[in-house]
Design goal:
The complex is a heterodimer of chains A (98) and B (518). Chain A contains 3 helices and 2 strands. Chain A has 98 residues and is mainly α. Chain A has a domain at 6-42. Chain A has a two-stranded antiparallel ribbon with strand order 1-2. In chain A, a hairpin with a 2-residue loop joins strand 1 (84-85) and strand 2. The longest helix of chain A is centred in the N-terminal third of the chain and has 18 residues, at 22-39. Chain A is flat, with a radius of gyration of 22 Å. Chain B is an alpha/beta fold. Chain B has a single domain (16-318, 408-508), classed as Amidase signature (AS) enzymes (Alpha-Beta Complex), CATH 3.90.1300.10. Chain B is built from 17 helices and 11 strands. Chain B has helices at 4-10, 24-33, 38-56, 64-79, 122-129, 172-179, 196-202, 236-246, 264-267, 293-308, 324-339, 360-371, 374-387, 393-416, 439-443, 450-455, 485-503, and strands spanning 59-62, 92-95, 134-138, 185-190, 205-208, 228-233, 277-281, 312-316, 419-423, 459-466, 473-479. Chain B has an 11-stranded mixed β-sheet with strand order 1-3-2-4-6-5-10-11-9-7-8, sandwiched between helices. Classes of the chains: A mainly alpha (98), B alpha/beta (518). Chains A and B meet through helix 1 and helix 2 of A and helix 11, helix 12, helix 13 and helix 14 of B.
């Protein structure tokens, strides 16, 4: 298994929307390389015929009747918003600048 | 079974006034008998928190006003002759991972430093229904990622046994609060051992119930297929009472088990283990597996005690436990990377806006860099990598198969025995700062506790004594099949009573008095 390079870590951090600073990237990349090497041992043991387990309980879809219930007020829902405007969450631009 | 006078006698001069030394059972009994008011009891804890907690840092928030308001209501209701729940008026601390309406809930992270939940987690709602005053919110590793509480963004919690050592993690605030008599009971969460390992290193009791036995609604998610809420206490009987309060089906959590809660309170009265088959898991005990000699010695003595109590001890092998750590450190980061994607600085949580006219994406990147600590970033990146195209099969996919093999190991073991036992953690509490630079060394603390989370089975840590080499407490872990949580309490209670007989008190009573630091 090839090790995790500094560039790989920068790329994955970008996918995870974490803008790492250079010093952080140096530190985390070295640690992650070691960790990835170690967790890779899962490849030694399970053969193809072992089914994967994603959850401790065998669950089918759990549903409930679709009934009208009380929910948060607009004020409650926006109370923790970094920025709000006209009863809505205010967010930075999501499109490129023209 | 418990005689309050023996505890009071162990304290110093002001012992007669020290209500905080009582067990929760004794507190409940005195309250019910009218010999004590909840306001007195709650105030005694608040006073002790005010005096001791600046030294320990077990609490991130203390809600004196709210706790006393509940206490006053309980006292008034009792005076009016109202029928009250068993723990009504007994105070409790809540790990800062559970949402509390109107009370800041941070999960130990700068990301949520100012987050005030608009609703209560189901466990919190149940505590309120049980009319227990909530003293405050306890410290934890950021988003419950860690084994020492050193990853809290708000500073480490200190171990009441030795202030230079860690109280375990991630629930070190809850374990330290209970061990230092700042609260008789506390709520914890256990994803890989975060209730059991802190209990072990602070000489207290902690239970991770069966997966799904306690609702996760309103709990800040770490890894949803592993997370479980449970009780922290100083005695097994106390833990059972809190377990009973919080367990049970919740329609708001689709993974909540819809089945009767096992009789854990009844089981906590067990004194005889005749005929019980106990399996020692070869892979998670023994000096050759890296377990500290003093921890192993107390474990071996506990096995003798279990034999004296009538249990039949055999060795069992769970060969795939050797791969549990590796599988866990793929599954947990994978689920965490997905769960923590919600912290995007748009609807709540910290927002950092870079200079200029940044896009939402740039704001997210800057906010997540500033809001998350190193361990959280490591795990998010590791999880994102393990789930990414081209690596999924080799990492996350393989880890899921290992998880199956571990669940099968448990099934095979529970065909031979009724419960499994091991030391809870490989060592006693280590020194603050010893492992913060070496994430791998930190991860290895959870070697004995992780398999239960992967399989969803219940586990408990009970004190086994103190290690000869450092005088610090060690824990014994009990594991049972899913929905057989009462077996943990039966074994834990019988062992606790036997050790208490031999040592002349609970292990926690050997803890030194805390020297308050300026």
């Amino acid at each position: 298994m090839s090790n995790l390079s500094r560039e790989d870590v920068a790329h994955v951090a970008m996918l995870a929307r974490i803008q790492l600073e250079d010093a952080e990237l140096d530190r985390l990349a070295a640690q992650l390389d070691q960790i990835v090497d170690w967790v890779g041992q899962v490849g030694e043991v399970a053969s193809a015929d072992v089914p994967p387990m994603s959850h401790p309980m065998p669950l089918a879809n759990v549903t409930r009747p679709d009934e009208v219930r009380d929910s948060l007020t607009v004020e409650q829902a926006l109370a923790n918003a970094p920025q709000a405007q006209d009863d809505r969450f205010a967010v930075p631009r999501i499109l490129d600048e023209e | 079974m418990s005689d309050p006078t023996t505890h009071a006698a162990s304290g110093a001069g002001a012992a007669d006034a020290d209500l905080t030394r009582l067990t929760a059972v004794e507190m409940a009994d005195r309250l019910a008998a009218g010999a004590l008011t909840s306001v007195e009891l709650t105030q005694a804890h608040l006073d002790r928190i005010e005096r001791i907690d600046p030294t320990l840092n077990a609490f991130l928030l203390v809600d004196a006003e709210g706790a006393l308001a509940t206490a006053r209501e309980v006292d008034a209701a009792r005076a009016a002759g109202e029928q009250l729940p068993r723990l009504a008026g007994v105070p409790v601390a809540v790990k800062d991972i559970a949402c509390t309406q109107g009370l800041t809930t941070t999960a130990g992270s700068r990301m949520l430093e100012d987050f005030v939940p608009p609703y209560d987690a189901t466990v919190v709602a149940r505590i309120r229904q049980a009319r227990m005053p909530i003293l405050g919110k306890t410290n934890m590793d950021e988003f419950a990622m860690g084994s020492s509480t050193e990853h809290s963004a708000f500073g480490p919690t200190r171990n009441p046994w030795d202030l230079d050592r860690i109280p375990g993690g991630s629930g070190g605030g809850s374990s330290a609060a209970v061990a230092a008599y700042l609260a008789p009971l506390a709520i914890g969460s256990d994803t890989g051992g975060s209730i059991r390992q802190p209990a072990a290193v602070t000489g207290t009791v902690g239970t991770k119930p069966t997966y799904g036995a306690v609702s996760r609604y309103g709990i800040i998610a770490l890894a949803s297929s592993l997370d479980q809420i449970g009780p922290c206490a100083r005695t097994v009987a106390d833990a059972a009472l809190l377990h009973e309060v919080i367990a049970g089906h919740d329609p708001m959590d689709s993974t909540s088990v819809d089945a009767p809660v096992p009789d854990v309170v009844g089981a906590a009265g067990t004194t005889d283990l005749s005929g019980l088959r106990v399996g020692v898991v070869r892979e998670i005990s023994g000096s050759d597996q890296g377990f500290q000699p003093g921890v192993q010695a107390r474990f071996d003595e506990a096995l003798d005690a279990l034999r004296d109590l009538g249990a039949e001890i055999t060795e069992v092998s769970c060969p795939h436990f050797a791969y549990a750590m590796a599988a866990y450190y793929l599954i947990l980061p994978s689920e965490a990377s997905s769960n923590l994607a919600r912290y995007d600085a748009m609807r709540y949580g910290r927002r950092v806006t870079p200079d200029g006219s940044p896009s939402a994406e740039q704001v997210m990147g800057a906010s997540r860099d500033a809001g998350f600590g190193d361990e959280v970033k490591r795990r998010i990146i590791l999880g994102t990598y393990a789930l990414s195209s081209g690596y999924y099969d080799a990492y996350y996919g393989q880890a899921q198969k290992v998880r199956t093999l571990i669940a099968r190991d448990f099934e095979a073991a529970f065909e031979q025995v009724d419960v499994l036992v091991s030391p809870t953690a490989p060592t006693t509490a280590f020194r603050i700062g010893d492992k913060t630079e070496d994430p791998m060394a930190m991860y290895l603390n959870d070697i004995a506790t992780i398999p239960a989370n992967l399989a969803g089975v219940p586990g408990m840590s009970v004190p086994s004594g103190t290690a000869d080499e450092d005088g610090l407490p060690a824990g014994l872990q009990i594991l049972a099949p899913a929905m057989q949580d009462q077996r943990l309490y039966a074994v834990g209670a019988a062992l606790e009573a036997r050790l208490r007989e031999r040592q002349g008190g609970y292990v926690i009573e050997q803890a030194p008095e805390i020297e308050v630091r300026a």
